[in-house]
Amino acid sequence: MELISVILIAIGLSMDALAVSVTSGIIIKNPKISDALKISASFGIFQAIMPLIGWISGIKISNFISSFDHWIAFLILVFLGFKIIYETLMSDSKKETFNPLDFQVLMLLSIATSIDALAVGLSFAFLEMDIMGPFLIIGFVTFMICFIGFFIGDKFGHFFENKIKMVGGVILIIIGFRILIEHIFY
């Protein structure tokens, strides 16, 4: 597979993580570079590891995983989206809302946004591709896109405060439904 194809796949795989990174930049008060690095690294690592797991697993688990991976991603993203909306509606200006830096939340988000990458890894195995190039490219591209997206959320999200947090929650819900619909109908 050509390098440009792998880069385009990496960009496509990183879009869900980008949306969550932008939302995280909006939600986190007084964000630091270390916050952006933590979120970006988590998404980049999971986006890189999932194709590797898929590639290693190959044909053995493809039918098993593909039958419910979309449901896992859907449930996690919809739950977190509603949680953001609920906490935004119930919060006052002094109350802390949804924390994307919480380890468990970040792990759930990282898994949910990278499940599709598992299927890509399976397809790489079916194509008998070497995985090291795509592994590194997908991880790096996702990291960079999410790092930039985090600061975009921070810079522009404060213009709209709570409304943008709710939009972030809605975005997570939409991503969850999109994943579900793509897997059910395509």
From TrEMBL:
This protein's UniProt keywords: Cell membrane, Ion transport, Manganese, Membrane, Transmembrane, Transmembrane helix, Transport
MF annotations from Gene Ontology: manganese ion transmembrane transporter activity
Pfam families membership: Mntp (PF02659)
First-listed, main subcellular location of the protein, grouped into a coarse class: membrane
Subcellular localization(s) per the UniProt record: Cell membrane
Domain of life where this protein originates: Archaea
GO cellular component, one term: plasma membrane
Membrane-spanning parts: 37-56, 68-86, 106-127, 134-152, 164-181
InterPro entries per UniProt: Mntp/YtaF (IPR003810), Put_MntP (IPR022929)
Membrane topology: Multi-pass membrane protein
Family indicated by similarity: Belongs to the MntP (TC 9.B.29) family.
Entry function: Probably functions as a manganese efflux pump.
Protein known as: Putative manganese efflux pump MntP
Source species: Candidatus Methanofastidiosum methylothiophilum
